[in-house]
């Protein structure tokens, strides 16, 4: 009888230890998923803040002044010009100087030909 109880106890101990060993990778995966969920929640909160700011009047005003180059009534827009460029007023009495023309832009198919075949495209 003692041997049967000892055998059953040994079988139960081995069974429990194998279940505990099998659950360790699951616990690690669970912790990794929990950490990832927490990071995604933080990112979601940050994105919601950014969305709310983009919908606010403060963002619209910031964009209008910085990128839109807009001013409020009574304000004057000043755009700094680098010191190496000579700017003449539009109402100048000097004769107009002709602007050099840029070379013609190549056609799109010639650019693609050069990209794929590393050579000059054929002339038609």
Let me know the average pLDDT: 83
Order of helices and strands: HHH
* Shape designation: elongated
The total beta strand count reads 0
Helix share bin: 55-70%
* Major sheet attributes: none
Secondary structural class: mainly alpha
Proportion of residues in extended strands: under 5%
Ends: how far apart? 102 Å
Runs in which pLDDT lies below 50 for 5 or more consecutive residues are none
Computed Rg: 37 Å
SS field, number of helical segments: 3
Write structural notes for this entry:
This protein has helices at residues 2-54, 57-66, 108-117. The protein has 124 residues and is an all-alpha fold. The relative contact order is 0.03. The protein starts with a helix and ends in a 7-residue tail after the last helix. The protein is elongated. It is built from three helices and no strands. The model has no long low-confidence stretch (mean pLDDT 83). Helix content is 59%, strand content 0%.
């Amino acid at each position: 009888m003692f041997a049967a109880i000892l055998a059953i106890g040994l079988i139960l101990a081995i069974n429990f230890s194998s279940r505990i060993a099998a659950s360790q990778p699951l616990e690690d995966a669970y912790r990794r998923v929990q950490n990832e969920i927490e990071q995604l929640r933080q990112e979601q909160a940050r994105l919601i803040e950014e969305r709310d700011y983009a919908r606010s009047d403060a963002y619209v005003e910031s964009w209008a002044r910085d990128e839109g180059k807009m001013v409020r009534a009574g304000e004057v827009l000043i755009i700094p010009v680098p010191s190496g460029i000579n700017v003449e007023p539009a109402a100048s009495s000097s004769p107009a100087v002709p602007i050099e023309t840029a070379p013609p832009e190549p056609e799109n198919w010639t650019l693609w030909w050069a990209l794929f075949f590393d050579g000059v495209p054929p002339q038609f």
